[in-house]
Fold this protein.
Amino acid sequence: MQRAFSQIEGARAAHHTPTVRAFFDEPTNTVSYVVSDPGTGRAAIIDSVLDFDPASGRTATASADAIIAHVEDENLTVDWLLETHAHADHLSAAPYLQQRVGGKLGIGRAIIQVQHVFGKLFNAGTEFARDGSEFDRLFDDGDTFEIGGLHAIALHVPGHTPADMAFVIGDAAFVGDTLFMPDFGTARADFPGGDARQLHRSIRRLLDLPPQTRMFLCHDYKAPGREDYVWETTVAAQRADNVHARDGISEDSFVTMRQARDATLAMPRLILPSIQVNMHGGRLPTAEDNGTRYLRIPLDAL
């Protein structure tokens, strides 16, 4: 963690900060990012979205195509396709993007734990290796990598799921589903392998980053009384104002609140198709002998 702190301070001192372009998908309330080094044009794409209509079963690539257009317009070279975790609210477009613009697909090593749990739920069979091999890079806590001249570090921040990672790139932290905007709070912790106490500790770890750190979130749901979607804040703002996790809220108080709140939440609308696809690195099922691909819906299992 000290390395991440030093990296951010060094990036600020050198004025070497990434350019961040956000792409908001309102149907899933998801924010994807293109993070680029202005000096070299090297880039990473974080938490991409494949459009999916559950009523018809149709997929589309409008969201991903907007990212591709930006990459091409800015003449960027994509080095990384990063997933902060195996999302339960949208399908990843990483394989489609990889085919179009390249880049290595990376996620936290604990995706293997998620694959074991959900491989059983979906009866994936022995052909599903459950070893993370669908991804090009499995990040461990503290792993470092480069995006052009930008230094990046992966931080394991479990609690929402076992596999959540935050990526600190230059002076910016991409924190996935750990935190929302200060007026909305924090992510749920009741998925398989989730843990509210672990989530609190992960959040406090992120809030130990320098106060000026730019923090980019994976979702926004517009808190009551707020008219606009917002997805960028700072560590200082989260420490001062986060309604669930600001300074002074104890771990026990957070756990009590989080568990009570989670008990009132419905399952995400797209959890079954999303996890089923995302545990395979965003790859859709292979077509069956009639040429059609199928998703499985386990009944009375969740």
The mean pLDDT is 95. The two ends are 36 Å apart (CA to CA).
